[in-house]
Description:
alpha+beta, Nucleoside Triphosphate Pyrophosphohydrolase, 8-stranded mixed β-sheet, 4-stranded antiparallel β-sheet
Amino acid sequence: MTSPAEPARRRGGDQIIPRPAAWRPGAPPPWTDRVPARFELAAVAHAVAVRGEGRPPPFLTPNSREAAVLIALFPGALGAEVVLTRRSSRMLHHRGEISFPGGGVDPGETPVEAALREAFEEVALDPALVTVVGELDHISTMVSRNIIVPVVGTLPARPEMHPEAAEVDRIFTVPLVELAGADVYREERWGTAPFDRPIHFFELDDETVWGATGRILLQLLAVAAGVQP
């Protein structure tokens, strides 16, 4: 129950989703009937490492820009948990959206270096605590034309973090087993067939994850559950 001093919270929160007129419900989650009681951190890290072996380098077009995000995982009471942020409402792009710490890869940087640097700048996550275990498949974004490299790293325990006010309004963590819940994830198909595309949503307590972050979370959970994303 919410105490009188706390604001009311509701499933999905207040985020405005720019849903088009043409849309329909999508497919069920790929991990149906494959969700364990808890995702153990070591098992998730191993699954990510194995999937990343032999991955070809990303193909960058002249108009694309490489970016990297850090999927920081640590052991919690319900198994592996992941660090998420809500972007500042003062940001020019994607304001108020849920994301992983991350940003553009600077000249001379590797995606891993960029992900660790951005996590330190945005949430004060000490890069010395992170053990990088691999990458998920790189994804492209339609609006910003970024090629995003999802870097997966593990931490020995829940880290101490602080938001950088200019970029981050909130830091929170969620157990992977909660994200995989049947009442949390859903897919929608936006557009008219055959040109419609899947959009992935995770409706949490007072927040909605979607867009590129939703696509990356879908892939992370599928890999952790041992199914094809």
